[in-house]
């Protein structure tokens, strides 16, 4: 048995989260005998939590099929967006009453960025400063940039894409809002949320964070660091299912002034009053829009059960770093030098929960990996992404992934 | 047996759609023996189609649980919004390639109204006319008005609420877009889509129709009548499930100029190109935004199976009118004159697929009706709504609903 295989065995034996794997439906065996799938694509679509199928069957057959509209009140459908928001809140370091679930990440980016610009203008109003610039991470997942451009166009702002490292210097008295990614979707780089948020605030602007690639994998600390608004998806490290609804965080002190560009009837102070005049609800509900998609939303609610009990996000983070460290160690041991280039930073403070490796034939390599049961994904044009979900990925999985990668790389290219 | 009970028996026996009832999960017996529930709230939440539970179980357990991300391509998740749009299209009189499913109705109203204003300005551009007014049905379901107000604010327009009958006179060279409801959610009044659309066009403006209360219950004829944009929900007469995704129709000739205010990555010409610059996809895909909520969307897809085979929307309309005629006939026979006032117009050309009855104690009356197995709904402050879904409501159901209503009214108020 190789040194890495032995290490994997020891690490798995000492893993305090190992038992959580049973909360998911996985065909692999945790790598113990090298069988089944090693699923390293939880940063795209989280694996199925075991609690989901039964819950959804009940929602479809009994709640919809038998109770029908009564479920809006009797089964808590109507309050699901804020109830499930409160389940996500502790995972991103937010007190209750600040997170609401619904719509896609893109739609929530629109609400948050327009909302942030409007907040900046309210604040700037008396001082007379013209806040007319939205700064966006130039390396962002594209939808954030596209939606920020629309928000800029519709609020009379200019959109300014800036690489994250250059953002502090780009801020000024014209900056209204800054849209940032906590973890870069491509490289897995973790950005410094506390420092960047402080810099945005020092410039008198509002910070919007996209947590898609961090929530559920590492501590975020929204309240602690004074983040203004945040959005995230729930189908990656939160395992909510394909296209599960996203969420919006609005800091409690800002909620009374949060002025949504999508003031649908679900955000009305009295939604069943059917009044022609809009009056926004207080609190997180103000971020709601239309009727929530109950099936997807209640699948997410069931999926969040995997966090119940004594699991903490700090334990998850510790294991995530141990997994990615170990993966890099195995890649270095198995893969000939120079065959791949690691795009993910080595320092723990700059690393999310994925490893991105660049190689010229990445598309072909990933196809072969998947064919051998190691599932990561490919990002155009030359990136292999491997996501590590600490609740269900183990160290033997990790060793096997690196070993199979080395085998594939030995057969191809170079 | 009363005259009405005999008539119900005859009408049920002659009903060409009677067999469709078997495609739904219903606890009633169609009224034959007066057992179970008479469900007259399909205009709020359609009953569960029998094909849905099995399909969703497969989507959850196999597609998500086993195939995971492979399902985005292998199970057609990625193309679901336009594929399911093409299933809805014939029901609203649209050729393929013009309807895309996703987001809530409210979000689609925003896309459509902003899109219509931008189209109007493109057209008006050369002539120099300032199109700066959005006209909205003053009796609209509130969310349409709230969202239209936001669209007006964000495009520099004025919002002008006008009662539907006054709309032709309110149009002029400043009108950019007109947002109308095909059927009024409260009264069940059917508006004249062909004539109103023609009036909007004569004024050089763009017509946006909300089909929430008509799609699946009566012919819409979007293509035939030259409607520009339309939106609708899928959880009423389309039976897609609670909060099922809504849809957006953009007329084929306008698609190249449709300029969405929510240009998420799913509407990009090359979504996996991950390009920083936005380039819109051609066709209906341009109406997409973020990742589609697959569970809710595929439940809707299965729900649309009830339309397969030889059922036509014209047959559905004929039965809908026969049901509402018969309900009014029974109400007149059973309920003492003056106890309720019918808000729904008598002429077939002005009636949707619901009957709205006003009585001062409507809230209490509806509670008692539901307690006796006749499920309609209550709209503040004094409206009883009874929705007739021709695919699963029969004439004996209808007679029983009127009879129980008369019993309840005899016990209460007045």
TrEMBL record, chains A, B:
Biological pathway: Amino-acid degradation; L-kynurenine degradation; L-alanine and anthranilate from L-kynurenine: step 1/1; Cofactor biosynthesis; NAD(+) biosynthesis; quinolinate from L-kynurenine: step 2/3
GO CC list: cytoplasm
Known EC number(s)?
3.7.1.3
* Group of enzyme by EC: hydrolase
A Gene Ontology biological process noted in the UniProt record is: L-kynurenine catabolic process
Residue numbers carrying N6-(pyridoxal phosphate)lysine: 236
Please identify the protein, giving its name as recorded. Kynureninase
From what organism does this protein derive? Streptomyces prasinopilosus
Per the record, the gene is kynU
